[in-house]
Amino acid sequence: MGSDEVLSYPIPNPTALEPPEVWERLRRERPAAPVTLPSGDRAVLITRYADVKQVLGDPRFSRQLDAPGAARITDSETGGVFNNELGSSVPTTGEGHRRWRQAVGRWFTAKRMSALRPEIEAMGDRLVDEMVAGGQPADLKAAFGFPLPVWVICHLLGVPAADRDRFSHWSDAMLNLSRYSEDELRTAQADFVGYLTAHVAAKRAQPRDDLLSTLVTEGAMTDAQLVATGLGLLVAGHETTANMIGKMVGMLLSDRSRWERLLDDPALVRTAVEEALRFDANPGIGLPRYLTEDTELSTGTLPAGTTVMCSMAAANRDETAFERSAEMDLERAPNAHLAFGVGAHSCLGQALARTELQVALEVLLRRLPGLALAVAPANLAPVHGLVVGGLSRVPVRW
């Protein structure tokens, strides 16, 4: 890898579950490497744990890439999930962002997640029943991994069960890098905004016990902010967790001793989930940040006006931060991975994601102890063309 080489980003994985070999060289030799994004714009990729943690933890730097000169992730007119006009209605920095997080975050407390846990478990059991009734082999992603998180997020938003299938397509489209045409993106965004606008109006007329009803009755947000909040929760709360369920099970079944270890000691589920989050080699594009002032990193100074791509996955394999970083250790603790980011912009729904991942794994271990991949691990196919990474299918037997 030459010192002036510009990599195309995102960097493809050799297989769906293995990290790109270049990550290690980047951390060692070029921890702030120039890259070309799908839009054709230039950015700087950072891969060291300390650097990624520093940039993500700095409240001055926003993921909203609407500053003059900021790099675009995609060149679509709709702007994609990082640049679109709808998303800009929610404050991304300062006191406005803090108030927004405080208002929404009350729905993602440990107490609320604990109360929701039995309902998630019951839905997981129903999905396993339906998958088993359909016969084997089955696609765990389609039968279990995707329906469970979409049920949860729609439950929180107060969305009727009959409308939930539409949310999967809208979520996919909002996370597009290259999978959908401009017309498809525009249609999906318009349909989603139209649906949520009507949904917000319905909550205003007849509030229920759900997150949007609470935000509507409190009156602290405009309708545009309420719609943008619903979009953010759908995209962050559904697609990422849905894909993570499939990848987590794929990781555990790709080395059967891992699954057997959890069968022998189910108390390890919590640390196993955290290690799966750290070990995930295919989380997607990572998080962009726009540097509003010169920033000193381990490799030197990056000038103000730089768009930085933070690879949390590469940072989570940093051998200076994690002992035996290339090994999946189901008992690893502490585990200060960066999968959810850090600081003021860390994932608002991480308590919900952890709850869903833990419950999903507990249900599968209890109901399907003989679960096994129906294909060789190397033949698991990754998702292409989306901001998030995942497996296109997770064929299993039991």
TrEMBL record:
Annotated membrane-spanning segments are none
Sorted keywords for this record are: Heme, Iron, Metal-binding, Monooxygenase, Oxidoreductase
Could you confirm whether the keyword ATP-binding appears in this record? Answer: no
Name the segments for region: Disordered: 74-95
Q: Does the keyword ATP-binding apply?
A: no
* Database matches in InterPro entries: Cyt_P450 (IPR001128), Cyt_P450_B (IPR002397), Cyt_P450_CS (IPR017972), Cyt_P450_sf (IPR036396)
Spell out the molecular function terms from Gene Ontology: heme binding; iron ion binding; monooxygenase activity; oxidoreductase activity, acting on paired donors, with incorporation or reduction of molecular oxygen
Query: One Pfam family of this protein, by short name?
Result: p450
**PANTHER family, per this entry?**
P450, PUTATIVE (EUROFUNG)-RELATED
Record-stated family: Belongs to the cytochrome P450 family.
Protein name as annotated: Cytochrome P450 family protein
